[in-house]
Design goal:
about 260 residues; mainly beta; Lipovitellin-phosvitin complex, beta-sheet shell regions; eleven-stranded antiparallel β-sheet; globular; signal
């Protein structure tokens, strides 16, 4: 009997260890949840133009509260309350800062990650600003894509995120190709190392814009919640702008961070 008990225990332990060898990545919002997010984006910028130069530091922070309701006709209603803070400190100029609070409402299909927002409210923005922010967020959300994939430790997947931002009478097109490698699974969480390959380009009304860069990062994915708990990136880029007869080279170093706390409503 004792030997049988030991055999069963060993069998169960082996099964548990085997279950931790792989994870199914299936990012999505879940119903009746509260997502508390803190996002940081700090950028140091060095600009060179006409034999001169200037340095700039831009800091952005987002405090987001996302609330999801129950499933209705295959979709989950949600709201996102966002407090945005932006500060810019540029050499030779006065520092500036701005704070904006806004609330977005929309839905996300059951089992999916990308919401479709239908309205934005803010006392800190004009109607034109709200329209621009709404359009930008909508376009960015449409381009977010993570594959539903089962990975073993050591395996990786690629997520390509294209972004288009209006600029100088045209648009800047950026492609971030992120490679996510699963390095370990522990205590219900999957840990990824991330590498980024970034390219930019634009045909502006009176000139052009191109750039490239990359960097590394880390992501922690909560298996039960099907959502990242944290994400960090350290990125470096070189940009070249030619407009109205002037050439500008910009070198940037950006540190990005995101943390999520997920709970039931």
């Amino acid at each position: 009997m004792k030997k049988a008990t030991l055999f069963i225990a060993a069998f169960l332990m082996a099964g548990a260890m085997k279950a931790q060898d792989s994870v199914t990545l299936d990012l999505q919002y879940m119903p009746n949840k509260k997502y508390t997010q803190v996002v940081g984006n700090d950028t140091k910028m060095e600009m060179s133009y006409g034999g001169e130069g200037a340095n700039m530091i831009m800091k952005m922070s987002f405090n987001n509260l996302i609330l999801t309701d129950g499933v209705k006709a295959g979709s989950i209603p949600l709201t996102m309350q966002s407090e945005v803070s932006v500060s810019v400190d540029m050499e030779g100029m006065d520092s500036s800062s701005n704070e904006i609070t806004m609330k977005l409402a929309g839905t996300v299909k059951e089992g999916e990650l990308v919401p479709v927002f239908t309205s934005v409210e803010s006392e800190d923005m004009t109607e034109d600003m709200k329209g621009q922010v709404f359009d930008l967020i909508t376009k960015m959300m449409k381009n977010i894509s993570f594959p539903e994939k089962t990975l073993k430790v050591g395996e990786s997947f690629v997520a390509e995120i294209p972004t288009s931002v209006p600029f100088g009478g045209g648009a800047i097109d950026m492609l971030d190709k992120g490679t996510y490698k699963l390095v370990k699974i522990e205590a219900g969480k999957a840990y990824f190392d991330v590498t980024h390959d970034i390219s930019l380009g634009a045909d502006l009304a009176e000139g052009g814009f191109n750039g490239k860069g990359g960097g590394t990062g880390k992501m922690v994915y909560d298996i039960a919640s099907k959502y990242p708990l944290s994400l960090s990136n350290d990125l470096a880029m070189t940009l070249n702008i030619s407009q109205e007869g002037m050439s500008v080279e910009i070198k940037t170093n950006t540190k990005q961070s995101l943390t999520n706390t997920i709970s039931n409503r």
